[in-house]
Amino acid sequence: MLEYITGTVDYVGPEYVVLDHNGMGYQIFTPNPYVFKRSDQQIRIYTYQYVREDILALYGFGTRQERALFMKLLSVSGIGPKGALAILAAGRTDQLVQAIEEENEKFLVKFPGVGKKTARQMMLDLKGKLADVVPDAFPDLFSDASHFEEKQPNELDDALEALQALGYAEREIARIVPDLQQEALSADQYIRKALQLLLHGKR
User: Fold this and answer.
1) Closest to 163 in 3D by CA, of 203, 133, 123, 135
2) Cβ contacts of 68 within 8 Å, gap of 6 or more
3) Which coarse location class applies to the principal site listed for this UniProt protein (predicted)?
């Protein structure tokens, strides 16, 4: 298994980034691709290789702890890679862990693809088992940093595409667009703001 890949970001899309490593382009699905931008700067992405009969894909994360949480989410019946990425995309691991520990079903079902049955399974399988991925082990992956996207006119469009790729319905996204249009933000910042609106009742 690949522990991590170091390289330069060659492409950023709504679902994945392409990391150039010694002339080879690795397609890596990440919770929020727009944390990255195309650059000659070397970065490291911790990877998880997902193998099934009909799929072989790489998933990438900023820290080993974030990857560990992704793997724990995959262990829950009813959650696949896309669902796990959507859960992690909010960038608020503290809220997720707290909701699981407090058995806050109402919060968990706000994630795309998570119904009551899956939320209960998450609480059953993960409660008390997240000590190795507690929130304070995570650097703020979505804080301002030099490798973030610069503001461009199509940043909001990019963010909306990324939300659709995460599994949010168009009607849900449409409700929060007016709130998003009030500020000129980067795609990453639009995604963060949108996810907070979606997770806190603006649906």
Assistant:
1) 203
2) 132, 133
3) cytoplasm
CA dihedral 193→104→82→160, nearest 10 degrees, is -20
**What is residue 134's predicted lDDT score, i.e. its pLDDT?**
58
Percentage of the chain exceeding pLDDT 90: 55
- Report residue 62: phi and psi, to 5°: -75, -25
Rounded Cα gap, residues 175 and 153, in angstroms: 21
pLDDT of residue 93: 78
Residue 29 has a pLDDT of 97
CATH number of residue 74's parent domain: 1.10.150.20
Residues of the domain holding 113: 64-137
- 15 in any annotated domain: yes
* CA-wise closest residue to 188 among 79, 52, 30, 4: 30
With residues binned 3-state (H G I as helix, E B as strand, rest as coil), the percentages for the chain, rounded to 5, are 45, 20, 40
User: DSSP readout, 9-38?
Assistant: EEEE-SSEEEEEETTEEEEEE-S-GGG---
- Whether residue 150 is predicted with pLDDT greater than 80 in this model: the reply is no
159 burial level (CB within 10 Å; 0-12, 13-18, 19+):
buried
Query: Model confidence over 44-60: pLDDT tens digits?
Result: 999 999 998 888 999 99
